[in-house]
């Protein structure tokens, strides 16, 4: 009996091995992305716009004012249009790549900010609970002003008890003390 053919499953990815004759070019994603960001930043500067403007003006002047045999792109400037289109066709993907990398960095920073905010919120909740418990504990503890007033009162009572009594106060009973009349 022959062996059954291996069944192809739809939920299993295909083997993507390529023949050794076909090689894909390899490149460093970070280096290429860094280059794209630098290029996109440069293209967004006034210096780039000035350089491009000077290049186009020089191109047009050369191909308009130079002797006929030296001109290489006559009036409709088809070759100039082709070069500017080629430059734009490379610039657009590089700018998009730079934007994607910036978006990824922004997502990472936003996630870090979210985590920091969550930690700060938890810390604030903890501190609020601690402050509330301290308020409750302080409510049960005598305050400094309360202790001072109580000590002043006790000091006054001690002063009254430690004063020698006057002789007339000792002889007359308290209810018979003479009071000056009106």
From TrEMBL:
Entry keywords, A to Z: Membrane, Transmembrane, Transmembrane helix
Keyword Ligase: no
Transmembrane segments annotated in the record for this chain: 48-65, 77-97
InterPro entries: DUF1003
A UniProt-annotated Pfam family: DUF1003
Stretches for region Disordered: 158-182
UniProt entry tagged with the keyword Transmembrane helix: yes
Protein name: DUF1003 domain-containing protein
